[in-house]
Amino acid sequence: MRQVAVAGIDASLVVYKVKGKVYATDALCTHGKVALTEGDLEGTTIYCPLHGGGFDVCTGKAVSPPCTVPLKTYSTVVEGDDIFGLLED
């Protein structure tokens, strides 16, 4: 996973590669407002480094407490080594 800034989007994003697919979400936990890139990615779940809450990176859904508010997700298009089309879902 890697945190990125994208022109036209106010928030920083995290790009994840899981089983050959690329996903993107907002970079900050909706509960603790800390960078998710400091957390652990297990399968499709990113765990916040502050309180351990988890989110599904495919859907943004909060999957473990104390997180309840989902992450914003963004559509991605991969062409070779480049990622395009980071648009809010």
From TrEMBL:
Its cofactor is [2Fe-2S] cluster. Residues 1-85 form the Rieske domain. Keywords: 2Fe-2S, Iron, Iron-sulfur, Metal-binding. InterPro entries: Rieske_2Fe-2S, Rieske_2Fe-2S_sf. One of its GO terms (molecular function) is 2 iron, 2 sulfur cluster binding. It holds the Pfam family Rieske. It comes from the Bacteria. Belongs to the bacterial ring-hydroxylating dioxygenase ferredoxin component family. PANTHER family: FERREDOXIN-RELATED, RIESKE DOMAIN-CONTAINING PROTEIN. This is Rieske (2Fe-2S) domain protein. It comes from Acetobacter tropicalis.
